[in-house]
Amino acid sequence: xxxxxxPVSHEEEALYKKLFETSNDAIMxxxxxxxxxxxxxxxxxxxxxxxEEFCGKSPSDHSPPTQPDGRNxxxxxxxxxxxxxxxxxxxxxxxxxxxxxxxxPADVLLTPVFYSGKTVILATVRDISERKRVEEERxxxxxxxxxxxxxxxxxxxxxxxxxxxxxxxxxxxxxxxEIKGKxxxxxxxxxxxxxxNDIMKKISAGEQVKRLRTFRVKKDGNTVEVSITTSPIKNxxxxxxxxxxxxxxxxxxxxxxxxxxxxxxxxxRLNRLMVGRELKMAEMKQELEKIKKEVEKTI
Length: 299
Known about the structure:
The chain is of the alpha+beta class. The chain is built from 9 helices and 10 strands. Helices cover 43% and strands 28% of the residues. A hairpin with a 5-residue loop joins strand 8 and strand 9 (223-234). It is elongated. The mean pLDDT is 85.
């Protein structure tokens, strides 16, 4: 059953009119024939010059033929208007279309209101293109973090772990549910506690700690040699609220380095032996020449 809109006083009508004209959101009035009024924000958002131009278009011109779920826009719009009358309001996401043909995502609120003796729909539209872009970027970064082979974790300034990717699970042996909410000190060897304090001091000062070679403790108690980079995390006001750490297991690479160093050392030793041997051979050759000359003198 439709919920009738209640008549408003002259004072309320004046207030609504002021809000209507000054709002940064697009606001339009809709009856059973289509849009019949809108504010200046609507014209800016949809790219029209006059109210007559906007309202003279069919409502179907302000939306693509179908919505992201594949449903016909006009059929779905009629359903949402009906729900707004039944419930007293209806809030949802919608894809609108500008005059230029560009589609954009929006939050829409439909509210039945009493206007000139009749109940009409007040539609409030907010462009959420930027919010969607940020969400998509956040999701993309989250997917990169989750699929990374490196251990990536986030913590607050007290060292409490707030996020933990699959790479961290593989490196340290803890699942996210086991480690989240615990202090990073759980992963720090006793002889490295001061190192962590130094790192957090630099982070609090806005500095980044790059490629620090150190050791961490795994769930099984064994230590692992890692290269870590720790960076400050800031909120939207630019305040440092935590740190993100990327850790890479360098056990194998360090072993390779040690093996190469041993080989270089051995080559240097052999080279010294070869050089010594060549010098010895030269000395012996000189001695033989000397003896040969002495013999020739006696003949």
